[in-house]
Amino acid sequence: MMRKVVGIALALLLVIFAAGVWAADIEGKIQQVDTSGRVIVLEDGTRLWAAEGLAMDNLKEGTKVKASYEERDGRNILTGIQVSE
């Protein structure tokens, strides 16, 4: 049973690495918002591109956010974002 679980876990890791996609979370304050390019830049310089369908209306400069993203084709693609208090 344990060997099967380890085998499945390793197979999943291989699929993730082969696809070149990894997920991460980040917190920070928005420095710049480009709605036409669907990009936000955090104070630390991190650039995040909003995935299609992800609302950007409440994202303004100076807003603190918590964001989840995946690296795809060399870009950090937002998969979720929430405004922090």
User: Which strand order do you get reading across the main beta sheet?
Assistant: 1-2-3-5-4
SSE order, one letter for each helix or strand: HEEEEE
Q: Helix count, per DSSP?
A: 1
Straight-line N-to-C gap: 45 Å
User: Biggest sheet, open or closed, and with what strands and sense?
Assistant: 5 strands, mixed, barrel
CATH class designation? Mainly Beta
Sequence stretches where pLDDT stays below 50 over 5 or more residues: none
Q: Can you count the beta strands?
A: 5
- Rounded to an integer, what's the Rg over CA atoms? 16 Å
CATH topology annotation:
OB fold (Dihydrolipoamide Acetyltransferase, E2P)
| Principal-axis shape | elongated
What portion of residues is helical? Answer: 10-25%
CATH superfamily: Copper binding periplasmic protein CusF
Q: Structural class of the secondary elements?
A: alpha+beta
What's the number of domains? 1
Strand portion: 35-45%
**Overall pLDDT score:** 82
CATH architectural label: Beta Barrel
Please give a structural write-up.
The structure is a single chain. This protein has one helix at 2-19, and strands at residues 23-34, 39-42, 47-50, 64-72, 75-83. It is an alpha+beta fold and 85 residues long. The chain has a single domain (22-83), classed as Beta Barrel (OB fold (Dihydrolipoamide Acetyltransferase, E2P)). Strands 1-2-3-5-4 form a 5-stranded mixed β-barrel. The longest helix has 18 residues, at 2-19. 9% of the residues are buried.
Provide a brief overview of the structure.
The protein has 85 residues and is α+β, with helices and mostly antiparallel strands.
